Amino acid sequence: YRRLFLLLSENQYFRLNTYLMGSMDSRKELTQQTLHAEPIIAPILTETLENELLDLSEFKLLEQADFEVYCAPTPKMPQMMREIGRVREESFRDVGEGSGLSCDVDLFDPNYHQLFVWHKTNRELVGAYRLGLVDELIEQGGIHALYSTSLFKYDEAFIKTLGCSIELGRSVVAKQYQRNMHSLLLLWKGIASFVQRNPKYTHLFGPVSISNDYSPVARQLIASVMSVHYYDNDKAKLVSPTTPLERNDQEFWRPDMLSSLSQLPLLSKVLSRLERGIGIPVLLKQYLSMNGKLVCFNVDPAFNYTLDGLIVVDLTSVPEKKLGKYMGYDNAVKYQLAHKKM
C-alpha cells in the first residue's frame, strides 16, 4: 500500500507541476497595491543608540563574537525603537510589504518587548523581533491588546489552548545581513534564551507573512498546502480571518493533488520553478521546522495586502535536538523535562 501511495503521490506531483508551469504566463498578475509611501526616516545617530545601549545591560540575553542580543520593554529604548521601525519599513518595502509610513512603529509597540541584535564592531542594528507576553498584555488591556487580533478573530478560548504564550511578530533583518542565515539564527537564540529565563512560557504564536513577491497562484498554493499538511484543525475552529484570502481562478488543484507536496523540499522546488528561484518563505520554513502548525490565513490591507498565516509552535514538543540548536541541548532537555512533570 505504501508503494502504491508513493506512486500515486509521484504522479500527482508531476501533474501539479505541469498545471503550474502552464500558469506561469499569468504569474505577473498585480497583487501589490499602490502605496503613497512616505519617505523613510534617516538612520538614528550611532552615538545616540550606543548611549541608550549602556542603560540596557540588564536586558542583554547573550553575546556571540561581535553580536549582542537584547530583549527589553519598548519604553526602555525609545531611540532603538525608532531605528528598528526604520529598518522594518526599509526591509519590508523591498519585498512588497511595508506600512507606507516613514517609520514602522505602531500602536502596539509601546506595550511589547523588542528583541534585537546589535553588531558591536559595525555599530549597527542587525535584526529584530517583537515579543508580546500574552498574560501581561491581556491583564493590562484585554484580548485586543494583542496585535494578532487586528488580523484574526479569536477570543480567550483560543488563547487558553496555548497555555502561557508569547506572541511573535515584525521579524526583520537589515539588508546587509540578509545574505546568510546567521542573523535569523541569532534572533532565535535570543528568543530561546528569553524563554529559558522565563520558563513558564510554552507556546509561541503569531502571523507569518507571505509577501507580494509571490504571485497570486503561488500564494494560493502555499495556503492550500499548509491547510492540508500543516494545519491544527482543532485550533483552527477557534480562529477566523478579518479579511479572508479570496480564491483565485487559477486555483485549479484538488486536495488529493496536494498530497504530493507533504514534504517541504518538494513544495519549495515547485515554488522555485513557479517563482523563478524563490522557494518557501524563510520564516515560514523556520516555524515549520519546529513543528509549527497554521490555524488561519488573512490578508492585511494595512500592510500592503500581505498574506499572513497565524502559526503556533508548542516549545514542549519541538524535538530536543532542534530546540537545543537555539537554547543549548542541556537547557532544552531541562526545559522540556520540567514541563513534562507538570
TrEMBL record:
<protein>
    <recommendedName>
        <fullName>L-ornithine N(alpha)-acyltransferase</fullName>
        <ecNumber>2.3.2.30</ecNumber>
    </recommendedName>
</protein>
<comment type="function">
    <text>Catalyzes the first step in the biosynthesis of ornithine lipids, which are phosphorus-free membrane lipids. Catalyzes the 3-hydroxyacyl-acyl carrier protein-dependent acylation of ornithine to form lyso-ornithine lipid (LOL).</text>
</comment>
<comment type="pathway">
    <text>Lipid metabolism.</text>
</comment>
<dbReference type="GO" id="GO:0043810">
    <property type="term" value="F:ornithine-acyl [acyl carrier protein] N-acyltransferase activity"/>
</dbReference>
<keyword id="KW-0444">Lipid biosynthesis</keyword>
<dbReference type="InterPro" id="IPR016181">
    <property type="entry name" value="Acyl_CoA_acyltransferase"/>
</dbReference>
<keyword id="KW-0443">Lipid metabolism</keyword>
<keyword id="KW-0808">Transferase</keyword>
<dbReference type="Pfam" id="PF13444">
    <property type="entry name" value="Acetyltransf_5"/>
</dbReference>
<dbReference type="InterPro" id="IPR052351">
    <property type="entry name" value="Ornithine_N-alpha-AT"/>
</dbReference>
<comment type="similarity">
    <text>Belongs to the acetyltransferase family. OlsB subfamily.</text>
</comment>
<keyword id="KW-0012">Acyltransferase</keyword>
<dbReference type="GO" id="GO:0006629">
    <property type="term" value="P:lipid metabolic process"/>
</dbReference>
